[in-house]
Amino acid sequence: xxxxxxxxxxxxxxxxxxxxxxxxxxxxxxxxxxxxxxxxxxxxxxxxxxxxxxxxxxxxxxxxxxxxxxxxxxxxxxxxxxxxxxxxxxxxxxxxxxxxxxxxxxxxxxxxxxxxxxxxxxxxxxxxxxxxxxxxxxxxxxxxxxxxxxxxxxxxxxxxxxxxxxxxxxxxxxxxxxxxxx
Length: 182
Hints:
Oligomer: single chain
Largest sheet: 10 strands, antiparallel
Number of strands: 10
Mean pLDDT: 79
Order of helices and strands: HHEEEEEEEEEE
Helix content: 10-25%
Number of helices: 2
Strand content: 25-35%
Structural class: alpha+beta
Shape: globular
Radius of gyration: 20 Å
């Protein structure tokens, strides 16, 4: 039996999934960087000033990452960064949803209202992909998946039509999936 929808249950679900995404995004095996004060050295007055390193881009260029297109249908809605944090790919109920890259399933469920049957796959310390509105999930939390493996069936759970909502997250931030897809 389904519980009735309440604003409190929606926020609780959103908080749970956001907490999960934050934990996954922050789970790195790298040791923490030393503080600037700990690494500061006193330079002699006659020494030339060292040039500060150039700041790194917040989101690295996608050149090295090539993701497989997760579904065969047409793109019915594009990424805009605010209203749509991914792309929507149309199709028929039951169409195959494929893993865009090898990784580990870190979430499989319906805990975030508006995403329906949702899968989140962690590919490395900085990259996650999300697959929403599935009719059927074929993998579960903790499963390792191969690039191109069928992981779900397209559906319309919590959606206005049959589609796959596909998101790419770099360092926890939604980025346009189009440049990453082969």
